[in-house]
Amino acid sequence: ANSAPCSLGRRCHQGSCGGCEAWRRVVRTGCSEVLLTSAAPLGWPATCKLENKAQREELEDAAVLADGRVLAVGAASTDGSQATRGWAVWQDAQGGWQLERTYVADGIAIASGFDRLLAVAARPDGGAWLAGVGQGKAPVQRPWLLRVDGQGNATHEALLPAPVGSGASDTGRFDGVATLSDGSAVAVGRIDN
Fold first, then answer.
1. Phi and psi (nearest 5°) for 90?
2. Tens digits of residue pLDDT in 13-39
């Protein structure tokens, strides 16, 4: 059995080294399985990947919610492939894991391969706005905005269509989001054409 401290930022959990702790919890188990591929501020791994597999988990942004919890967002593959879903993880104020959710754009049942949350902004009601890039049923990646409640349930979604006058192959994404005083949001990003 492995003992703490584990190398590469992994945590010892139930006698073995856990996976990359991008959200300060054991994400994957088994020291030989996990490869730390890049680092984020505060020493948190930004990306972890199972060795010999394509499955990934990536951290993009975090925000403190109205109730003091922390919401971190990014992308995760859940089926052993490179296809990613938007990923959100809630932690208490002490860094303890509470819940996590994955989201796919446009309400489709399977991940398109390119869904990723890039930004988060707290809402005054304890929920949050999540922004990023999604594909859904569209032919290319598009700007994607979600509103979630405090339990992670999606209560609103917008996957923007291609702007008038642009080609159907134009890609886009929301890189940032801010909550306005009335609880609505403004999201900023780019269109590549």
1. -100, 135
2. 444 444 444 443 334 333 444 444 555
